[in-house]
Amino acid sequence: MIRLIVGLGNPGIRFANTRHNAGFMFVDSAVSRWGEWIEETGKSILGKISVDNNEVLILKPFTYMNRSGEAIPPIVKRFSISPGEILVVYDDLWIPLGSVRIRIKGSSGGHNGMQSIIDALGTEDIPRLRIGIGPLPDGASSVDFVLSEFSEEEREVLEKTIESTLEGLPLIVLDIEKAMSRYNKRIKE
Prior knowledge:
By secondary structure, the chain is an alpha/beta fold. The chain is built from 7 helices and 7 strands, in the order E-H-E-E-E-H-E-E-H-E-H-H-H-H. The chain has helices at about 20-35, 70-80, 110-120, 140-145, 150-165, 170-175, 175-185; strands at about 5, 35-40, 45-50, 55-60, 85-95, 100-105, 130-135. About 35% of the residues lie in helices and about 25% in strands. It has a single domain (about 5-185), classed as Peptidyl-tRNA hydrolase (Rossmann fold, 3-Layer(aba) Sandwich). Strands 2-3-4-1-5-7-6 form a 7-stranded mixed beta sheet.
């Protein structure tokens, strides 16, 4: 069972609506819907939600994307959470906007925030939910693209994707393998 959901992004108004903050947007929506933010921990803000009568912690690292892993060890130690009980939620420019992918483990796929978490926890056996923000436009810099804001149309697709995925959060939390077969496909418009 998932006991901690970590949403990745960059702190501050400057980055609030950028593609790289899809993970923050997801956990903000989850907390708005089912819970509350309960404390700032210095390197992050900690919240909790109730999913089918199960308390799930929510974490937003304030360490910036590439150092996301710094915020996690103190929380997993404090609450005795194993890497397999964590769901990391982040953007993926190789997945089309409107789609999500769930994996139980694996490499970072070049995502620096996920790599920071793998390094901090010493394992790739960490479940993750990747939110599609792609495709990367021809000739575009990946750094510039992920730090750019969504258009109004794109933001609507993202919000629909997040809402649809939140509907399935109980399944993701309780049976991630079953959730993989349901969500590893394009969300229909």
